[in-house]
Amino acid sequence: MTGDDAGAETRADDIEYGVDDRPPLGESAVLGIQHYLTMVGANIAVPLILAEAMGMPTELWPQFIGTFFVVSGIATLAQTTFGNRYPIVQGAPFSMLAPALAIIAVVTAGGVAGQPDWQAALLQLQGAIIVAAIVQVAMGYFGLVGKLQRFLSPVVIAPTIALIGLALFDAGQITSPDQSWWLLGLTLGLILLFSQYLDLKHKAFRLYPVILAIALSWIVAAALSAAGVIGIDHPGHVPLGDVTETTLILPITPFQWGIPELTTAFVIGMFAGVLASIVESIGDYYAVANLTGAAAPSEKRINHGIGMEGLMNIFSGIMGTGGSTSYSENVGAIGLTGVASRYVVQIGALVMLVVGFIGYFGQLIATIPDPIIGGLFIAMFAQIVAVGIGNLRHVDLESSRNVFVIGFALFIGLAIPEYMANFETTLAFRDAVGIEAAIAPLATADVITAIGLGAGIEAAATVAVDTVFIIGSTGMAIGGLAALLLDNTIPGTREERGLTELNQLTEDDEEFESFWDRWVSSDGERGR
Questions:
Q1: Neighbouring-strand partners of residue 339
Q2: What's the half-sphere exposure (Cβ side, CA atoms, 13 Å) at 465?
Q3: What phi, psi does 17 have (nearest 5°)?
Q4: Cα angle: 112, vertex 117, 120; to 5 degrees
Q5: Which of 317, 303, 362, 345 has its CA nearest to residue 77?
Q6: What is the spatial distance between Cα 528 and Cα 524, in angstroms, rounded to a whole number?
Q7: How far does CA 306 lie from the centroid of its chain?
Q8: For residue 249, which phi and psi values (nearest 5 degrees)?
Q9: pLDDT computed for residue 525 by the predictor
Q10: Are 94 and 377 in contact (CB under 8 A)?
């Protein structure tokens, strides 16, 4: 294998378009939009959650949502061109949502003089993301993240990837008490019909199962809504009248909400979310390599991917969104559609970048009912779970230590986030832990007071508790970290852990050419 052609030359049998393939422009545009449709639920859910929590005026919501799509488009283009060059869509991370909500809760509870509460909260959120992301950039481009690769055996990778999919088994779009099961079932059934049963009947079914299923389900829901069969309170209702309730072109610009502000405690809390995002992204990189039949990512590729995600997090902070990371939904779409083309994802990113400025687009996407998104989630994330489990083919499953590590990681990766879900914010978790009462004797001790460390101890303890909450709320982070710790401390041979076979399947650093490598190489060829 040479350079980035590795992904194409070792293509999996069920991949229609490999990483380096370039389908016709029109086909690429449709396929690219399909990739984005798989993550539209999450990329809209995050800004809606943040806007509601901040108390942002509803007339600004379309602009806020549009900004997320603009950032997603630019971040995806940057990652696929200058970063790890994997065909992964970038979007708003759920892993950074917990610290974001904590920041919003603190700011809106006390308010900031001279500004509306929502704006003060958003500016603090932007500042925290920018500074935390600077550290992420350093960790990536200085090679700190890639160094972890030597400790990542399939025993660690398998439950981490599986938990990316399992984490959404209880998503509101799936388990809502007033769920429209017939609409969810229609969407899921159509995806299965097109991708699994009719995929050999016609190329369209094989390439476009997601976009066909969403479009048909939406048309049915919209028609029933227009006819009055589905009422406004029904979860499958499509509010067609909302589409025109915005401006045509949205004024999306850098620092559109104001100049970001910095608070040290917020930055540290946000960095915990960034760490969770890094773990998730590494899992996505391995998942994409598995799905496309390519070699496992090299240390150099991982470093460039995480470094670029950091740069795009800085950009998202400048634009005023909630961060940027690799999207697992898009990874699942590769498995369902067989479309792993980087070019397709880039075309889709260009489309999203343009339509993000169009107010009607955001409003139209927002009309997709939750049951349709729920059906999509089930298909997408089931695929990712299977990809994670597939990594166990490298592992000795007759080894009791391997069985224990994998089972333990999966269990706590589901159990601990379920416990953390009892607390809406880090503030509620702090109260449950009783942090103030616990550290009061130490912080108010005469010796500590005399040297002025009381406030520092209280701040450090608060950050520690917030970090536990944020990491503990992210299933794949807590499960992956548990597997990482146990797999590297419980005695076991390299063959037993699957490292010997994985290392043979991992690309060398020389096989990944960064944008700089390709630019210098082409410049040198022109000079000869």
A1: 17
A2: 22
A3: -125, 120
A4: 60
A5: 345
A6: 6
A7: 13
A8: -110, 130
A9: 56
A10: no
Q: pLDDT-based confidence at 445, cuts 50/70/90?
A: low
Residue with tokens 């380096």: 20
* Cβ pair 513, 524 in contact under 8 A: no
What is the DSSP-derived secondary structure letter of residue 506? B
Average confidence (pLDDT) over 141-167: 85
Contacts (Cβ under 8 Å, ≥6 apart) of 203? none
Tens of pLDDT along 92-149? 887 787 778 778 877 887 655 555 688 889 999 999 999 999 999 999 999 988 888 7
d(CA 287, CA 296): 9
Distance of CA 391 to CAs 48, 159, 326, 475, Å? Answer: 35, 9, 20, 18
Contact yes or no for 155/126 (Cβ under 8 A): no
Dist. CA 177–CA 364, nearest whole Å:
25
CA distances from 366 to 169, 289, 404, 414, 422 (A): 22, 32, 43, 29, 28
* Geometric angle at alpha carbon 481, from 133 and 313, rounded to 5°: 15
Residues 423, 432 contacting (CB under 8 angstroms) = yes
**CA R_g for the chain:** 23
CB contact set of 201 (below 8 Å; sequence gap of 6+)? none
Q: How is residue 275 written in tokens?
A: 């760490």
Cβ-Cβ contacts under 8 Å for 278 (sequence gap 6 or more): 136, 139, 145, 306, 309
